[in-house]
Design goal:
Elements lengths: L10 E5 L3 H15 L18 H16 L3 E4 L14 E4 L5 H4 L6 E7 L2 H9 L3 E2 L1 E4 L4 H10 L4 E4 L14 E2 L27
Parallel strand pairs: 1-4, 3-4, 6-7
Antiparallel strand pairs: 2-3, 5-8
Length: 200
Amino acid sequence: NAGQVCNAGSRLLVHRDLQDAFIAKFIARTQVLYQPGDPLDPATTLGPLASQPHQRKVLADIARGQAEGAQVAMGGTPVNRPGTFVAPTLFVGHNRMAIAQEEIFGPVTTLIPFDTEAQAIALANDSIYGLAASVWTRDLNQAHRMVGALEAGIVWVNCFGDGDMTQPFGGYKQSGNSRDKHMDSLLSYMQGKSAWFQLG
């Protein structure tokens, strides 16, 4: 979807000790996995943005991130081919930047370092949105703590985007109202009623 999806992982909170190694692996994998091209070509793994106005908006968001002091670790430019392509872009910045607080709907993500679990939770929840989150850990107790603490409608553990129709999908805060998929999606069309009978 070239980042044009509601649950895009647009903020990456990475422990500061892992930051440099993570960036190096992220860049190496992205260069292999995301090849721009004709969306009808099975070899294409990165399609164009929806329109020229949207491409201009995404590029303006990238320029704004640079103006706010974010470091471009990768990308940040149009792809040199016909069409409305933008190169996969990785920023390193902080959570108060517009690129971390607003939904860009393009192939853009911002890496934000953290030092403690509590700081990671605070950073993750410091957003008006709360559709989806993902936690990567070998510690099952930590995973349960994070799932409980994160203000998101769905939290994946050691995966991203997995699920099926048995799992409700929807967000907290300004990431929608009600749920999609699952029986829970019918609840927004219903109205509950209570009755209390005193007999005897």
